[in-house]
Every structure is written in structure tokens, then in C-alpha cells.
Amino acid sequence: MEPLAARIRPTKITDVVGQEHLVGEGKPLRVAIEKKHKFSFILWGPPGTGKTTIARIYARALHAELFELSAVSAGKDDIRKIISAESHDRGTLGIRTKVLFLDEIHRFNKSQQDFLLPYVESGELTLIGATTENPSFEVIAPLLSRCRVFVLEPLSEEALRTIVKKTKIKVNKDAFDWLLGYSNGDARKALGMMEGAMSLYGNVSVETLNKALESPHLRYDKKGEEHYDTISAFIKSMRASQADAALYYLARMVEAGEDPLFIARRMVVFASEDVGLAQPTALVVANAVFRACETIGYPECAINLAHGVAYLAGAKKDRSAYDALRSAQTDVRAHGNLPIPKKIRNPVTRLMKELDYGKEYEKYDLESYLPDKLKKKKYLK
After folding, report:
1. Other beta carbons within 10 Å of 137
2. Span 81-100, mean pLDDT?
3. Which one-letter DSSP state was computed for residue 271?
4. Strands 41-44, 126-131: parallel, antiparallel or unpaired by DSSP?
5. Given 1.20.81.30, 1.10.8.60, 3.10.100.10, 3.40.50.150, which CATH number is that of 157-214?
6. Are 373 and 316 in contact (CB under 8 A)?
7. Predicted confidence band at 362 (pLDDT cuts at 50, 70, 90)?
8. 19-151 has which CATH code?
9. Residue 116 · residue 108 · CB < 8 Å
């Protein structure tokens, strides 16, 4: 029998739960699917948020022949087979469209992406890439320039509740709250736990969910689970200044063959987000570790990673710059582009001078340079 997540997977765009900014009425992916626009795109977002579902619905809307590959195990030969394969039927305008859904496209190396590029460029393949990593770092520029990028968000509590209801399985409030915390916006993860509890104990409750989580008999969806749980534990251990725990989770990732650049990138982010102003040299160290991993590679770069982890875990922590940025971004989204005070505008023309651009500007002015509506705001505390 198919997994629960597969059995309730939507087949129509109107049935997709969540991602309203992409699939809601009048939104870009909804319009593309309804009007059968043919183009390549990349879906960037966390696991269990609908990437595979959207790809299949799109291919079905185009009456295309869909090929699904995982970049973890696929290679150039798999692409060759798809290109050379005869279409099963023909559309009104000739050979049936071939859509390649390449999951975890960030795992394709540069050579593999270079090989894929001409087929996407010529239109022989319509590419839908799925990635949990920032495609601007992981996808080569020529391929990225030929794809639109759509960002998926973790599923909200409301969306997850709707999905759970679709299963027709009785889940009380406490059990749902448990699933909400466990899944972290990942529907597949939540459904997998529900299915495990049902198959092992016949019902879904906090007790059976906890038992299922600990059970060696429960089959987990291996598609990204260990990867995300381990990196989460790794970051949280460094945040808590627990160097031993951070090194342990680093060792697990290294032994599993995790991409060292993935680990190093998270360390660079951590250096600014969590260490921040308390120890600015942390960013220098993290960048040096990234560069070392880039130039040395496994197995030796594991030592560079360990060096960086020990340093970051032991560093003082200060999230004030990170929190200040997020607060400022909230105001930008709420108020839009508020007028910049005239005194700090650049008077590059005579008219601008006449309009008092730059008037009374002083280098070391104590008056706030924020827009008038935000004069009293303090972001960095």
C-alpha cells in the first residue's frame, strides 16, 4: 500500500493546501498551470511543503510525459535515457512535452548541471528542479537564468490542520499540537508519524506518537529527514555553547557523507546570526572554514569544520544585529518605502538643491535619519 502522504496527495491545483502566494487564485503558478504555460522553474523550500505535488500537477496540466529523478542517485546517463526515449504519445503540436522533475537539484554537481543545460535551453526538456538549498548558491548561473524560482514556505498551523483532516483519522488537540511541533511545517513528516502510530497502536494520541517515534519498527521517510534533524541539532548545540554535542552531530554528518559546503554555509550564517557583534571574528573564522572546505574537500576538511565548530560553540552569543534586521524588515513590509528625509538625500541636480535635498546635512548629526513615521524606532538594542 502507498504511504498515507501519497494516498491523499492532491491531483488538482485547487486542492493544494498552503503556498497561497504561489497557487492561490491569480497567483503565478496557478495562472501558469491554468493557462498551460510551458517553462522551466525551480521550487525552493523546506521538505514536505508541496514541491513534488506541484510538479506533478503542472506536468499533468501540460499533458506532458513526466520523468522523476533524484539528484542524489541520478547522473548524466539518466538524462541521456530520457532524451533518447520515445514519447508514449503525441500532442497536437508534435512530440509530447517531456518534463523532468529533478528532486534535490542542489546535489547535481557543476558538470552534471552543465550537461543538463543545453536540453533545457533548447526546450527538449522542461525542467522542474526541487531544492531545499538556496539555488543561487547551488545551481549554476546559466541554468538558473533559464528557470524561474518559486519559494515555498513551511506549512502553517491552519494548512497542516486541513491536511490532517483529509486523512479522516481522529486526532485530538493534544496530538495535533504534538504533530505541529514535531513536523515544523513538514506535512509529509506529520503524516508519516500519524501512519506509524496508527499501524503500530491503532490510534493517534500523544502517547502513541511518542511510542512510534521511539519504535525501531517504524519506517521513516528517508527523503531529507535525517539530514534536517541532524543539522538542526548541530546548530542548536552551537547556539547553546555545547561544543561536545555540536562536534558529535558534525561527526554524524561527516560520516554520512554530507556535503561539507552545506555544513560550512550553515556555520557562516550562524556566525552572523548567533555570534554576531559579541565576537565579530567568528565570521572571519567561518568564512575561512568555508574556503578551506571548498579548496581541500574530504577527508581533510573535516578537521577544518571541527576547528570552526569548536570556535563558534565557544564564542559569546549576540543576536541583536539579526533581531534588528528582522524588526526593520517588518516595518518595511508594513509601511512600504517611506519618504527618506530630504537632508540625507543627494542633491545631484539644481532642482534637487532648490527642493532642499541635502540641506542642513551634518556628518555627525544626532537627529534620527529614519523616515518621519519611524523617528523614534530603535532596532539595534
Report:
1. 11
2. 70
3. I
4. parallel
5. 1.10.8.60
6. no
7. confident
8. 3.40.50.300
9. yes
